[in-house]
Amino acid sequence: MIKNQLVEWSGDLGSDITFFLSRGTAYCTGRGEIMTPVAPMKDGTKVCIVKPNIGLSTPAVFRAMKYEKLSDANPNTLLKQFLEYGAEDADGYINDLEEPAFQCLPELGKLKNELQKIAGFDHVMMSGSGTSIFCIGEPDEKDKFIDLFEQKADLNVYFTEFISRKEGLWYSAK
């Protein structure tokens, strides 16, 4: 009962706060506040997050959106792909907010294109309405990648990996 109340309240705090009450993987719909628990993705899957030091107004992104261009992919089919193949091999990465975000900040689209050319990244996608871009995988030439991207004064680069938690417990150090 308490967890259900937390999930309900978290949606009032922020669109994606609910996710942080999951085991590390969740199917979120609506603004991100409607959470359906799913089995955790494989721990250890590498993720690189590239965060430009620029802001982007979510209302501006939605104003720029062309609703006739929204994906018609079936969300349940996409979820099934992720659960069956995992984050590295799933082929259903869709973010309808990318195109309008790239209209608002063309340099964000250029950054995504640049990251897509890095060998070792299986998927490159903007997170939510921006401006972070996440890359599934790890650069084949990590030192070269670090030299190129971490040297840019207007970017922060974070290497991390998927982790999950046991049901009923919070995250803890291994």
Provide an overview of this structure.
This protein is an alpha+beta fold and 174 residues long. The chain has two domains: 1-38, no CATH class; 39-161, GHMP kinase, C-terminal domain (Alpha-Beta Plaits, 2-Layer Sandwich). 34% of the residues lie in helices and 19% in strands. It is built from six helices and six strands. The strands form two sheets. It has a four-stranded antiparallel beta sheet with strand order 4-5-3-6, with helices on both faces. Helix 4 crosses helix 5. The two termini are 28 Å apart. The mean pLDDT is 83.
**Any idea what the shape is?**
globular
Give the strand order, joined by hyphens, for the main sheet. Answer: 4-5-3-6
N- to C-terminal distance: 28 Å
Unreliable stretches: none
Instruction: Name the quaternary structure.
Output: single chain
Count the strands? 6
- Individual helix count: 6
Structural class: alpha+beta
Radius of gyration using CA atoms only: 17 Å
The CATH topology of the largest domain corresponds to: Alpha-Beta Plaits
What is the strand content? 15-25%
Helix/strand layout:
Elements: H1 2-13, E1 26-29, E2 34-37, E3 46-52, H2 58-64, H3 75-89, H4 98-104, H5 106-116, E4 121-126, E5 133-137, H6 142-149, E6 155-161
Antiparallel strand pairs: 1-2, 3-5, 3-6, 4-5
